[in-house]
Amino acid sequence: MRINGKGLVDRSTPLTFTFDGHSVDAYAGDTVASALLAAEVKLVARSFKYHRPRGVMGAGSEEAGALITVGNGAGQDPNVRATMQEVYSGLETRSQNRWPSLNFDVLSLNDLASPFLSAGFYYKTFMWPKAFWEKLYEPVIRRAAGIGGLSGEHNPDSYEKAYAFCDFLVIGAGSAGLMAALTAGRAGADVILCDEDSIMGGRLNGETYDVGGATGQDWAASTVAELASMDNVRLMTRTTVTGAYDQGTFGALERVSHHLEDRGGRPVECFWRIAAKRSVLAAGSIERPVAFRNNDRPGIMTASAVRTYLNRYGVAPGKAVTVFANNDDAHRTARDLVEAGVHVAGVIDTRRDAPDGDGYEVYKGAEICNSEGRKALEAVTFRYPDGREDKLQTDCLAMSGGWNPSVHMTCHMNGRPVWNEGIQSFVPVDGTVPGMLTAGACNGVFSTHGALTQGIAAAQEALSDLGVKTAKADVPKAEDAPYRLKPLWAVEGKGRAWLDFQNDVTVKDVKLAAAENFRSVEHMKRYTTQGMAPDQGKNSNVAALAVLADATGRGIPETGTTTFRPPYVPVSIAAMGAGSQGIGFAPQRFTTSHKASVEAGAPMVEVGMWYRPSFFPAPGEKTWRQSCDREVNNVRNAVGVCDVSTLGKIDLQGPDVGEFLDFVYTNMFSTLKVGRTRYGLMLREDGTVMDDGTTARMGENHYVMTTTTAAAGPVMRHLEYVHQCLRPDLDVSMISVTEQWAQFAVAGPKSRELLNGLLAEEINSDSWPFMACGEALIQGVKGRLFRISFSGEHAYEVAVPSRYGDSLFRLLVSRAESMGGGAYGMEALNVLRIEKGHITHSEIHGRTNAFDIGFARMVSAKKDCIGKTMSERPGLVGDTREQLVGLKPIGVVKQLTAGAHLFEKGADPVRVNEQGYTTSVGFSPTLETYLGLGFLRNGRARHGEEIQMVDHLRGITTQCVVCDPVFIDPEGGRVRG
Amino acid sequence: MRIKCPHCGERDRREFYYVGDAVALDRPDPDAGDVVWDDYVHNRDNPAGVTRDLWYHESGCSTWIVVTRNTVTHEILKTELASKVKEAMA
Amino acid sequence: MRFSGWKVIKEGLSGNKGWGAHWRDAQPKPEYDAIIIGGGGHGLSTAYYLAKNHGLTNIAVVEKGYLGGGNVGRNTTIVRANYFLQGNSEFYSHSLKLWEGLEEDLNYNVMHSQRGLINLFHSDGQRDAFARRGNMMVNQGDDAILLDREGVRKHLPYLDFEQTRFPIFGGLYHPRGGTARHDAVAWGYARGASDRGVDLIQNCEVTDIDIEGGVVKGVQTTRGPIKAKKVGIVVAGRSGQVAAMAGRRLPIESHVLQAFVTEGLKPVIDHVVSFGMGHFYISQSDKGGLVFGGDLDFYASYAQRGNLPMKEHVMDAGMTLMPMIGKAKVLRSWGGIMDMTPDGSPFIDKMDGVDGLFIDCGWNYGGFKAVPASGWCMAHLMATDTHHEAAAKFRLDRTRTGVNILDEEGTGSQHNLH
Questions:
Q1: Which Pfam families match (chain B) (predicted)?
Q2: Which of A411, A749, A804, B45 has the most CB atoms around its CB within 10 Å?
Q3: How far is CA A711 from CA A608, A609, A691, A716, C296, in A?
Q4: pLDDT tens-place string over residues A920-941
């Protein structure tokens, strides 16, 4: 029911939205909750377990009753608090957790079965017959559980993430927060003020009392206006600070366009990371319900929510409102209602010394013990101090069990709040989040005057820490009423009295938990699920704790609390993961030949962050194998070109580089001659192979190292570590130049011929023997030439500054094609290296050492190096080790697969018989057979033995002969050719 | 979490790579024996409280840093260049 | 008291007044045959199997907080047997078999749900590594199926097969993998142990271990000294501190691992999905919350809470893999203290040089699924002084000798990389 003349909604802008398909009238400035209440829609939702009818219970983000789904189709948004969703024209909303309809919900039968659905009942049943759990019980439970639903389709909306920095972060823009921001802003500090509401002012917007000589609403508006005029203050409405993290980092969720009919390209939400030098928590407090029989019916709300709807939205949530209270504050609700002309059926105050009513009756010392009404509240039964019971016809109950400070954020870094007997609740301990102060109601100070005073004080203290002077500030005149209450958690009596409305946890459940020895508050929580619902116990924790304390004969402080953890309000995965949907998850790295490769029709595959060509299909080729075989043959018989720029390149300079490399490589590099390249093996300190690659000595004090593609980053980090942490005495400088150089392998018997057509100076076997390196002028471009080979052929790698990469690649490929060769991709590269027995990270996979791969001789005895000592541990050498071998099929089955296991001939393929595994396989067009590399126990001593390879997963068993891993040209004639 | 790089000032934790206990600076002699080496490579004091560990300003200036830090509160007490710490050990 | 559906109905009809304590809260006695330090999943299962398999009932579990308050109540509840190294394979296989009979054994519904686990791969190389793993699982007698892209699509049609940064090549499907209700596992073992006479002592912190002449004599606690002939340390992330009471440094670094749960949602994810490329794994609880996690925060920590970078990374991974979860809202995030070892595999062993002192630790972030077999094998070791064959390779000296290093990840001795 709308009340004329009340509220901040814009009566000049009427609009309509839908709820469950029905059109609802509203005004700009309404929330779905306020509009539904204005339209006298009481039943809004169904509860989680018993599917009980539920309505709007509060007016904030902690809403325990009215959770709805917003929107339709792929972007439907479940579990939205109707109290936070601002209306706009055309907004579509739906109720949840009901079937077939909100009014007629089949699973409301659960409510009748509630005696069998007590806390933890599922731990005691559904165990027989065993197979029924997955097939019957669990699917039924799963379908009944849950609240809202996802669409199941890809998220269609855009989200963002952002960073912000400030001197002083103010969390909450109620009276304390506004005053803190104003004080700091006037002092010139860099301030961010966040509030989750659409307008700032906090409780002031829901109350009628004055601040600084104006109404609270006006004072808030004018203060916000002053703040908005300051360049050093950033106001962030609709922004909930969600978590406090280390060194002044905060997470915050901004609801950017949930309230807009036309988002106009804006993201739906933005997740902020705010780094603040100092902060103040001014998050206010949350009014707590009272547990009594059937206290969950639609129409039963918190007393402050009723005031908020009346004063801020101009809506009376009922025609005859009853107030149930144990404190003075709730009487404001009755006064405001009466003043607005709404009938107050009565105020039932549990205190015998409760204040008298002015225009309404106060039942002192009485308590409500039951409610009636099917899908909406119709009456309440209350009990006089003498035990007599009476009934009030009422359609709205405004209840208040007192207030709980919103201490949540002070617990995010493991702080524990302490019990305050005066307010019968927990208050924060300063310093639990370093740099954060608390002010106002969240600190247990409930008067407006107190909040304003603490806001000023917090700003002054924070700014003084930062060396910023604040001017003396006057506290605006405001109410300073004492907070008087008598503790009341649960009204005695039969039936079910709700504590956690969302998870349907009642007083009985908590008592049952205690009886079953779930007496620790953590056990009670986990057993009953109290506090684990969407409100995370904001409405129920303190009362549940009090009930548990009572049931276990302990005081509340000794019973303890559970821990509030981030986020303060639920945060969508899309917001915290903004930007990562699709390809945004990781950077994409492209080589300079990428375009040419794509133009040539090469399928590009991910190799780490890089993309590399898989193969280059030629006309008429139908399978990748045809292309691969041709490319291998090209290299073996003519010349092939392959982009190897993704390999890491590290430039090392300085007089001590040789000594440094001797320490990081197992073999010697100080003895390497200028103009020569050497293959090196690098170990981790635990003796396992870390990486391999060639390093070229370009000058006396200048080396260029190559790493594998995958290890480029880790090796760079490792080299810096070895230098800075172990050998800072060495004069070495290094930098990654991977992206500065485009580098191409030119491999095959005609490689030199091809290159000589491009080089300023022709090369020959004397000027560029195997493993030679140096600078070279390539088509007039100063580049580098290395005579190294991964394919086992006479081969070179030619490097030019990246800007020449595209043109050089095209040139090399066209020349190669004219000579009967062409480009080759990863598939051919892999076959070539398997034929030659060269290892990759398939073999040096982090569990193999130099001994295993047959490179023990490469660990120089003449010097220490990283990993040397540990590689000599007894378990890492000897005939129990699995050693690198080659495998060739010799039986009927010719196929080899990688990831298969090796067994003795005829042995059962079971774990205890397992002797090794395959790591790399490929079909060799050169030898016209599958070839495999693998590790076999004591493998080097077993060359010539027949074994079986078993791949259960692909259904392949192949008889193989064990051989040397180098299948082609073991003497190395070709590479030297 | 924010860490003060001795070169770059306070930076977000995202810029840093973590490797573990700064005991890594104290590499034994090759012939120190298996117990000493096992201790160096594997065993850790693993304190619940103040520890010194090694971080690398990987997305920054490539500096290795010894961070004195509390593993219970995540308070950062001191940051130093690892190379300086190592030189001081010599 | 035996739990059953009939009992639930009977009690429901009579006001649920007949339910008793699930376990006894015991006061410490002056002396026990054996003490287990740590009332988490592993400690409680150790006590249970000591009593059940070995008839040792004069024993106590001492817990500094509340039972099941550590990692057993903080994990993402995944149960699987998909290891590929000799030593791990047989152990986790044994554990999965125990899981499969756990409800009957404990008469407690731990909601072990074999809904199937799919590990995704994104390249030929990853496929081959998973093939090796899957083949070992079959070698061991467990189940593994190699799915291609279309095979994955049939199970998980909601993944982003078109746009995602790391295209899905296929997956290794482990049908017997799944989840369980984590807290119930701790409570079920507690109840089973308590029923067999084991004393469960909460709010009792061990402050020292008494050792005389190389023989363990008992422990000092905040509730007084307790004598014992055998003491088992089963304290996960706190292993470093407790082992230090016996003068021992361990190859363990404690790290924080975060986990997340969303608000309740109608069923949308039926499997456990693991996305190694993004360090992301997810399932949906029976209550409807999406339960998911990622990698360590990467710095040593005892804080049981993490920071934003890893939270965001986990959400990032979820969004690239399955953007249909975007509108799910994270309700809560928390952290556990992981006892990370240099090879990523655990220890169940005697403590060198102290007779009667045993340790079970180093579960990294895979401890939950190990709970049954860990207790089984630790109980075997404590009762018989010999290693159980399924855990024979979980030796403390393997880091020194290099014998049977169990590095499934292949990342080496940097503790946090496993």
A1: SoxD (PF04267)
A2: A411
A3: 10, 12, 7, 8, 21
A4: 999 999 999 999 999 999 999 9
Examine residue C94 and state whether it is found in any structural domain, yes or no: no
Counting the structural domains of chain C, the total is 2
Q: Are residues A392 and A412 in the same domain?
A: no
* Subunits adjacent to chain A (3 or more Cβ pairs under 8 Å): B, C
The percent of residues above 90 in pLDDT, for chain A, comes to 98
Instruction: Name every residue whose Cβ is closer than 8 Å to that of residue A413 and which is 6 or more positions away in sequence.
Output: A244, A245, A246, A432, A433, A434, B73, B74, C303, C305
Task: Note the pLDDT tens digit of each residue in C79-103.
Answer: 999 999 999 999 999 999 999 999 9
Q: In whole angstroms, what is the distance from residue A206 CA to residue A30 CA?
A: 13
Q: Domain containing C333: what range?
A: 114-177+253-340
pLDDT of residue A130: 86
Helix (H) or strand (E) holding A920: strand A916-924
φ, ψ of residue A505 to 5 degrees: the values are -105, 125
Q: Are residues C335 and C278 in the same domain?
A: yes
Q: Is residue A309 part of a domain?
A: yes
Select from A116, A123, A909 the Cβ nearest to the Cβ of C9.
A116
DSSP letters spanning C177-223: -EE--HHHHHHHHHHHHHHTT-EEE-S--EEEEEEETTEEEEEEETT
Asked if residue B39 is part of any domain, the answer here is no
Answer yes or no: do C329 and A584 touch at CB < 8 A. no
Is C105 a member of any domain?
Answer: no
Q: Is residue C109 part of a domain?
A: no
Would you state the structure tokens that stand for residue A614, as one six-digit string? 């898989």
Write down the pTM of the prediction. 0.97
Instruction: Let me know whether A273 and A413 are in one domain.
Output: yes
Instruction: Judge whether C146 is closer than 8 Å to chain A, CB to CB.
Output: yes
ipTM above threshold 0.90: yes
Closest of C258, C236, C214, C307 to residue C46, by C-alpha: C236
Residue B77 sits at the chain A interface (C-beta within 8 Å):
no
Q: What gap in Å lies between CA A32 and CA A285, rounded to an integer?
A: 22
**Nearest CB partner across the interface for A249, out of B2, B76, B81:** B2
B contact test, residue of A725, A730, A734 with most B CBs within 10 A:
A725
Identify whether B43 is part of a domain: no
Residues 6 or more apart in contact with residue A943 via CB below 8 angstroms: A885, A962, A963, A964
Q: Return the closest-CA partner of residue A679 out of A701, A654, A708.
A: A708
Average per-residue pLDDT for chain A? 97
Query: Phi then psi for A847, rounded to 5 degrees?
Result: -125, 5
Per-residue pLDDT, averaged over A160-166, amounts to 98
Can you give the residue range of the structural domain that contains A887?
878-976
CA distance A761 to A763: 6
- Judged by CB atoms closer than 8 Å, whether chains meet at B19 and A246 is answered as no
Based on the fold, state whether residues A32 and A116 are members of the same structural domain.
yes
Which chain B residues touch C251 with a CB distance below 8 Å? 38, 42-44
**Is residue A471 over pLDDT 90?**
no
Pair (A395, A412) in one structural domain: no
* CB spacing of B45 vs C416 below 8 angstroms: no
Q: How far is C217 from chain A (nearest CA, A)?
A: 31
Contact A127 C403 (CB under 8 A): no
pLDDT of residue A131: 86
Q: Domain total for chain B?
A: 1
For residue A519, give both structure tokens. 């007496």
Of A87, A102, A111, the closest CA to residue A45 belongs to: A102
Query: Does one domain contain both C300 and C164?
Result: yes
Are the Cβ atoms of A729 and B87 closer than 8 angstroms? yes
A596-607 pLDDT, tens digit per residue, is 999 999 999 999
Residue C407 lies in a domain: no
Do the domain assignments include residue A106?
Answer: yes
Contacts of B48 in chain C (CB under 8 A): 238, 240-241, 254, 302
Count: domains in chain A = 5
Question: A293: exposed, middle or buried (C-beta count within 10 Å: 0-12, 13-18, 19+)?
Answer: buried
Q: Which residue in this structure is represented by tokens 């005053």?
A: A179
